[in-house]
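SEVERITY: medium
COMPONENT: batch folding queue
REPORTER: lab tech (J.R.)

DESCRIPTION
The queue accepted two submissions in a row. Attaching both inputs and their returned structure tokens so the on-call engineer can compare them side by side.

ATTACHMENT 1
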Amino acid sequence: MTENGRISAVLTGLGTCLPARTVTNDDLAQRLDTSHEWIHSRTGIACRRVVDVGTGTAELAAAAGAAALESAGRSSCDLVLVATTTPDRACPATAPQVASAMGLTGVAAFDLSAVCSGFVYGLSVAAAMIGAGTCDSVLVIGAERYSAIVDPQDRSTAVIFGDGAGAVLLERSRRPEGRGVVLHTELGSDGTGDELITVRPGERYLRMEGREVYTRAVPTMVESARRVAEAVGWQPEDIDAFVGHQANLRILESVAKRLGLPPERVIANIEDVGNTAAASIPLALAWAADRGRLTPGDRVVLTAFGGGLTWGSAALIWPDVRPVHG
């Protein structure tokens, strides 16, 4: 129980899974009208990970989920929630397969679709279910195989997206000093922008209106981050780390600047993995934790924006957690 008597959700485990195969900008330049300099200057991306043929989203998700459980010193949970835009099949959901692959047959499992905002949406749902007493522990996994839906000949999307998975375990609060506590979340959507990021009926590949997405993403992420910070009584100077969805380095820098945050408080690993949609925030958290960029007690704001249009933010206190990589 927290000091005000409410049950809280606490982040106790963090895991990742990245494909072994790296595709560099120079690799893409061999088949596209582009160059490393063109891609890097516009996106901040130098390379991305891509799965081998035959590897599905469920396999990535299960590896990241198992790693998060190991990080928490746990072997099971009450619920497996998989946030993904790229399920292996339209039906059934991916999460039950992921749970079974982890040896968790019988637990609750479902998918959540909010595109690049999926992880923050999942975090919010998980925290609410723990707070309501529905679950004692929830595994939230963001997993994507964008190589399955990106047109390899479309320069506007092929250079941006990568594959990967990241996961966290949330548990009912049993820890002192509030470390790991998810303090507040806020979510939003605007269906009038549903055609900006889409896979249209009868089509295989993702289409994105990049310029318009950028125009909408920056102010929306700024306002969402401000709202969640204000809800927990934080001013910009109180935020130790800002972890935005890793869509584009320009977006991250613009959002941070408008929030009044110095560059050293911005977590960005997009250069090494590209845009991994729902997996990007947990992958960035693990990257930062491995490098000492996040320390126990840090005040952290997460913010995402994605297709739908959807967006969301979360405020939490960073725990004493060691990421495990699957």
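ATTACHMENT 2
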Amino acid sequence: MTRTAARYDALPALSDPLVVPLSTRAYNRQYASLYDYRLRRLKHPKGRLLAKAQAKWAASSSFSAASSQKGSGNSKKREIKEEEEERADALYVKRILDVKQGQVVFVIGTVYVSMQLKPDVLEDLTREQYLPPQPVADRYADPASDEVYVEDESGRVRLVGDAVGAEGRLRSMLITGVVVALLGTETRSGDFEVADAIFAGVPEETEEAKQSKMEVDEVKEDQWVAMVSGLEIDAMPSGSQNQESNLTDSQGDDLNMFGTSEKELRLTMLSEWLQGEVGSPEDREMASKVTSLVIAGNSISMPLRADEEIKSQPRTPIQPGHYPTLTLDNILADVASTMHIHLLPGASDPTSIALPQQPIHFALLPKTNRFDSLHRETNPAWFGVGGKKFMGTSGQNVDDIYKYAIEEDNEARLRCACRTLDWGHVAPTAPDTLACYPLADRDPFLIEDCPDIYFVGNQPMFGSKIYQGSNGRRILVVLLPRFSTTGQLVLVQPHTLQCKIITLGIVS
């Protein structure tokens, strides 16, 4: 098979902040510094959130001139500032607690949602002294009891009004950790009545990036990127094959007459399809156009039970040579000889649990690691293919955000993914309910550039949408389904933002 090559770009300016070397990992810090950095970054006078709020709610030209005089000791400049602020549509108050009743102002702060259903570490530790651990709630949202606050370095104030109520248009956008600009006024009870809100969104495209696209555009319409997630390769216990009496594997999947589960057959078909060895002539032609493969986490299956639960039960020995990492290595080695592979770690993979997850160690993939085409990415990840920017996660961020959402329809997760672009932040719920490193010098989840394709792995079903940013940029948002249960491989054409689904499995 002849396969055209696509240009790969590591995007070091975007991907390097996601790397956390072992020597720099310290858990003796407080997470407050992460929230402070997030707020300062978006609240900065040169930040895009403040600029958007001024452009919409204030007399932008006069207001900018007034705020530029801030901190001057010259009385004339102070008089100019007061005059310009009087002409503004709304005043910008830097400190939330400085808001005065009766003034129409806008403030910038971090959202905090008080939820009774959200897990509480201290409460769980106290309960464990008397009661067994309680199951984790599938959803945190309870419109009847939830209260929304906004806070900054000065303090916290509760948000009220129809816009942030249970049926309000802004309620689904306000979750813990989101930095937002709010327009409103203080009530007699000391609350902040919200009239409107603005979020950071995705950044504007730089002139350098525009010029680069004009000079080099290597993306062709006959080049596709294959995306898959949730391979969930499990260990093959000893004696699982060649025994007619054993009709299920270690994960409970039905075995066929050859003692192979449908999951294993799908993995084999995936490797062979990408190499053009199976399928119709049309499938082989399409496979020849695939230049890169993205594996978005959970390549290794999660153990069925905790060790504490199986101490009293005999464990089935694993057959030598059938460890899940070896199986993954064999599959990737076959594919890496013909195309680039971008491997993201997931929640069940052998790497760090805290976000940003670090690349899977090269020692676990001895065969594939010999190929330069293997790119062990972080989670979240940034990389470039054919001159287009890809940003993606293995799904933990959207899974956690979905617990805050009120909606329960099939499009809810897709909307949650699009909201991360509205917020300008991939994982706002970290570190509140999503584990992450207590970084003090940066927030690696801030979206500092505008991607062309944004993918989220390990979702219950496929979904895609063209996101239209406030800056006019078009971003393809793709939800990747779990391959182990659906057998679906998603093909993306970066140039046209077109999607196709290839389903691999047994035809009954």
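NOTES FROM REPORTER
The two ends are 30 Å apart (CA to CA).
No errors were logged for either attachment.
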